[in-house]
Specification:
Length: 546
C-alpha cells in the first residue's frame, strides 16, 4: 500500500498539471483566432514573399498606399486619401492622410512612401509585382511630408490600382527611419508598420500573433485586444475548432458548407474572388489545323452545353454567382458592367438544343474526341469537381471527353513556353479578382503574354493581332471614358472567340462561430481577412441575423 506522503505527492502533481495546462477549448474572449489552410512563406517582410497568402498576415501590420472600396470592391483610399494624374498621364501625385503613425510612434510621411516603393523595386525584392514596378517607375519625388509624386515611363492608367492590396502587396508602406536603425534582419524579426494590429510573435509553421493598437485607426479600430492566425491545413480540424470555440473563424471549401451550417456555424461568402474558366490551348498553331475546336461554332456549342446554374446549386452549394466575361467582376472598373451582365445572362445560357445544332452545322453531328485537363489551382480544390461537371455536360451533346485529372504542380509547367503538350486541348483554369481586366488579358491573350492563347510572336493570326491592338488601346488611353470604350472592345474580342470561357464566379468561404464574433461584411473580391479583422465586432455588439 503506498504511503500517505506518496499519495499526497501524486495528487499534488496532477493538480499542478491540471492548472498549468490550458484546456484545448475556447480561446479567451479578447482574442480573435482565425484558422487558415496556408500561411505561405510566413516571412514578415512585404518584399520577401510572392504568394497570395501573404495578404492574410501582412495586412494587419502594414497599410497600403491605395486601399479598398469596402462596399463595392475594387480600389479606394488607403494611406493616400486621394491621388491624381496630370493631363499628359505620365505621373501620379498621392496625397497622404494626416495624423498617421507607425507602431513605434514615428509619423507616416512621403519619405516613407518613397523608401517603401524603392525598396520594393530593389534587386533584393522578390515581391510579385517588383518587376512591373521597375518597368513602370522612372523616379519618385517627395513634394512635401504628405505629398509624393511618382513619375512613370509613359502612360500607365492602372498604376494606382497596382499599389493597392486589392492587387498585390507592392503598395505596403514601411517605416524608413526604423528600418535604417535596425536593418533588414531586425526589421524582419520585429516588423513595424502603421496598420491596426501590432506584430507580437511569428512561430514558423504554426501561427502569427498580433495585438491591437490602442488608438483610433482609419481602417477601423479593432474590437478585440489580440489577433492570432493559426495554420491548420486539415479542413475537418479547422471546422472542429470553430465549432468548439477554439477558433473564431476558419477558411473552408464549398463542399464543407453544409457540415458547417449543421454545426451551428455562420457562413461568410466573399463575392468576386475568382472565376472558374475553361480554355483552349494553341488553336492557332499549324498542328491544330484539323481540330474541330478551331471552328468558333464548336467552341460556342461547348459553352451552351453547360448548365451553370446546376453547378452553382450542386457543386458550389449555391455559394457562387453567374459569371461575367473572362476576368471581369461586378466591381471591375474601366468597363460597362451593366452591358456585360446582360450579355452573360444570354450568351452563357444553358441551351443544349442550340449546342447540338451548332455541332451539326460545323460537321460534327455525332460529336468528336476532346482531351480535357482537369486541374485545380492552389486554394481552389473544388475546380476539379467543376471540371467533372463540365465534362459530363459535354458528353451529353456527344463529345467524347478524355479526362486527364492532374495536379497543378505537374500541369503548370505545361502552360509555359511552346505548350506542345497542350495544343488542341482544353483545360480548367482560374482567374483572380482584380479592379480592372487589362492585366489578366495581357497574361492570357496577348502575343507576348505567358499563356498567349490567341497567338505568339511566330504565329499571330488576325484575332491575335486584334487582341494586341485592343489591349494597347486600353493601356495607352489617358481619357477615362475612352478607356472604358476601349476595354469593352477588348472584352468583346475575347468573349466572341469562345477560347477562354467563364463557368462560374466563385467566392471565398469562411465558417464563423457566432458566439465568438459578431456580424460583419467582407470586402468584395477580397478573400483574405487581413484587411477585415479590424472591423469584426464582438457578438454582443452586433449579433448575427437569423
Amino acid at each position: 500500500m503506498p504511503s500517505r506522503g506518496l499519495t499526497f505527492l501524486v495528487l499534488a502533481f496532477w493538480l499542478l498539471a491540471a492548472f498549468a495546462t490550458p484546456p484545448a477549448t475556447a480561446a479567451d474572449k479578447d482574442t480573435l483566432v482565425i484558422a487558415i489552410d496556408t500561411l505561405g512563406a510566413q516571412v514578415m517582410d512585404p518584399i520577401a514573399d510572392t504568394r497570395a497568402p501573404h495578404a492574410h498576415y501582412h495586412a494587419p501590420v502594414w497599410d497600403s498606399l491605395v486601399g479598398f472600396d469596402l462596399e463595392r470592391g475594387g480600389i479606394g483610399p488607403g494611406v493616400a486619401e486621394r491621388w491624381e494624374r496630370p493631363a499628359d498621364g505620365k505621373s501620379w501625385t498621392f496625397y497622404l492622410r494626416r495624423g498617421q503613425r507607425f507602431h513605434n510612434g514615428d509619423p507616416v510621411t512621403a519619405h516613407d512612401v518613397k523608401f517603401s516603393l524603392e525598396r520594393t523595386m530593389s534587386p533584393e525584392s522578390i515581391a510579385s509585382g517588383a518587376a512591373a514596378l521597375r518597368r513602370a517607375i522612372e523616379r519618385i519625388e517627395v513634394v512635401d511630408d504628405l505629398t509624393v509624386r511618382v513619375h512613370t515611363r509613359g502612360v500607365i492608367p492602372h498604376f494606382a490600382a497596382s499599389l493597392s492590396r486589392a492587387v498585390f502587396m507592392e503598395g505596403s508602406v514601411m517605416p524608413k527611419k526604423y528600418f535604417e536603425k535596425v536593418g533588414e534582419k531586425g526589421f524582419r524579426e520585429k516588423p513595424v508598420g502603421s496598420g491596426p494590429w501590432k506584430f507580437v510573435r511569428n512561430v514558423p509553421g504554426d501561427r502569427i500573433e498580433y495585438e491591437a493598437v490602442d488608438y483610433p485607426h482609419w481602417r477601423g479600430t479593432p474590437q478585440f485586444k489580440r489577433l492570432m492566425l493559426l495554420l491548420v491545413p486539415e479542413q475537418s480540424t479547422r471546422l472542429a475548432m470553430v465549432r468548439t470555440g477554439e477558433a473564431s473563424i476558419a477558411s473552408l471549401g464549398p463542399e464543407a458548407i453544409k457540415e458547417a451550417r449543421a454545426g451551428g456555424m455562420k457562413i461568410v461568402s466573399v463575392p468576386g474572388t475568382m472565376q472558374a474558366v475553361y480554355q483552349f490551348w494553341g488553336l492557332y498553331r499549324p498542328e491544330a489545323k484539323a481540330s474541330p475546336l478551331t471552328d468558333v461554332r464548336v467552341r460556342e456549342a461547348l459553352s451552351l452545353a453547360i448548365d451553370r446554374q446546376q453547378i452553382i446549386d450542386h457543386v458550389m452549394a449555391k455559394q457562387a454567382q453567374w459569371p461575367l466575361p473572362f476576368a471581369t467582376f461586378r466591381y471591375s472598373s474601366d468597363m460597362d458592367v451593366a452591358r456585360w451582365d446582360d450579355w452573360a445572362k444570354t450568351a452563357l445560357r444553358h441551351d443544349p438544343a442550340r449546342a447540338r445544332k451548332l455541332l451539326a452545322d460545323a460537321g460534327h453531328p455525332n460529336g468528336f474526341p476532346l482531351t480535357f485537363w482537369n486541374t485545380a489551382l492552389p486554394g481552389t480544390p473544388f475546380m476539379v469537381q467543376i471540371g467533372e461537371a463540365v465534362a459530363g455536360f459535354w458528353e451529353k451533346i456527344g463529345v467524347k471527353v478524355d479526362m486527364k485529372t492532374i495536379e497543378w504542380g505537374a500541369f503548370d509547367p505545361m502552360g509555359r513556353g511552346e505548350q506542345k503538350g497542350l495544343v488542341g486541348t482544353a483545360s480548367m483554369y482560374r482567374t483572380a479578382g482584380r479592379p480592372e481586366p487589362a492585366p489578366r488579358y495581357i497574361t492570357t491573350f496577348i502575343s507576348t503574354g505567358v499563356q498567349h492563347l490567341f497567338g505568339d510572336s511566330q504565329h499571330c493570326p488576325a484575332i491575335c493581332q486584334e487582341a494586341d491592338r485592343a489591349y494597347e488601346a486600353v493601356v495607352s488611353e489617358k481619357d477615362d471614358a475612352r478607356r472604358t470604350a476601349a476595354t469593352n472592345r477588348m472584352i468583346e474580342t475575347v468573349a466572341r472567340s469562345w477560347i477562354a470561357v467563364p463557368i462560374i464566379e466563385g467566392m471565398g468561404y469562411w465558417a464563423v462561430n457566432p458566439k465568438r464574433v459578431g456580424f460583419f461584411k467582407p470586402i468584395p473580391g477580397r478573400h483574405e481577412f487581413g484587411d477585415v479583422a479590424e472591423r469584426m465586432p464582438r457578438p454582443e455588439q452586433k449579433p448575427w441575423p437569423n
